[in-house]
Amino acid sequence: MAETTKLKSTPGAIAAFLAIAFATSWVLWGVGIRAKVREDLLVFGVAGPAFAAAVMRIRSKGSSRFATPLFLAMAPIGWASLVMAAWAGARFHTFSWNPILIVPALVPALTTAYFFCAGEIRIPSVRWPFIAALSMPVFLLVPAGIAYWTHLPVVQPRSNEGMTATIGAAAILFAKQFLFAGLLELPGWRGWLLPRLQQRFSPLVASVFVWLPWALWHAPLDFSGGVGRTWMNYVQVRVVFFIAITILLTWFYNRSRGSIVVTALFHAGFNTFPFVLPYSPPFLALIFGWAIWVVFADGSPRRPLSYSSVEKDSITDPKSSPSVRFRAATFIIHDPQQQAVKGFPTLPAEVEAIAGCWPNPKKTPPRHPKQKTLLCKMPN
User: Fold this and answer.
1) Order of all β-strands in the sheet with 371-377
2) In this structure, are residues 269 and 136 in contact, taking their beta carbons and an 8 Å threshold?
3) Is 231 helix (H, G, I), strand (E, B) or coil?
4) Distance between CA atoms of 361 and 149, rounded to whole angstroms?
């Protein structure tokens, strides 16, 4: 039987998380920028949100388990991705093994090993990782093809390379962004902060509250040669464009039942493909249409979301996996009046699972008037 956990979402806890994330990242970035270290070493600052989330988890749960085999496997993978990314950045002309890159490679290995044990880094069904990884290439390439045939402007960031080199560079740089940006930022911003805000606010409002510190957090990098070269560029990227991206990240997080892997894949996509693949600038505005559709299609302006990190692995849509045997799982639905019914506990303010899977699939579980039965995926 699964045990329901309630996320600690007090203003003090959220303020502590933000303080640790900002202090860690800004101090490490400030030292690195002043020392003019290579860009790969700034990854220590990128891990600020993940470090803050780990600190808050250890404070609240006292758990500091660590998957050593996963760490040992991820460290060489991270090093190889940095080596290959440097090669792709040099247009595949200069290759160097550069053993010093093993040092920054330890950072995503550490975060992955910790958050995997914490249950935050999971491999969900193939559907949502596939959608998250390919959404940005489709979003860029389809309009670029339309623009090409209608004689609209098309930008080709790597125009002097062939198709094979472009695809190779896209894959290599995507892997680097997944490991050294997505898996370092998102365990904090989406894995820790977002679900706690969604206990109190709708997904849309929670997205805005995540967007503001997330955008500001980038400031040391932005104003030391990034998107902050001009104020207009900064506003376009961190204010206008980032709001739509934040809404979409929330949508991916909720649709994938709280998967950091899925959000990290989408994050890696928009950090990579606009700098590698052809795109048409006028069509980039379509991302706002996508975000608006997400808001109203999912009812994001209206309902707060809350679910336990213990149960979200077990919930699935039976229509998406008809060949899998299912058993009923009992869930209590929001009751604003906190009314108790004879034989059942008082209802919580948010949606929370009170049981794992009903032990006997041949018997119907007792029905609560405020209850509905979802289906829980079980092994054959």
Assistant:
1) 352-353, 326-332, 371-377
2) yes
3) helix
4) 57
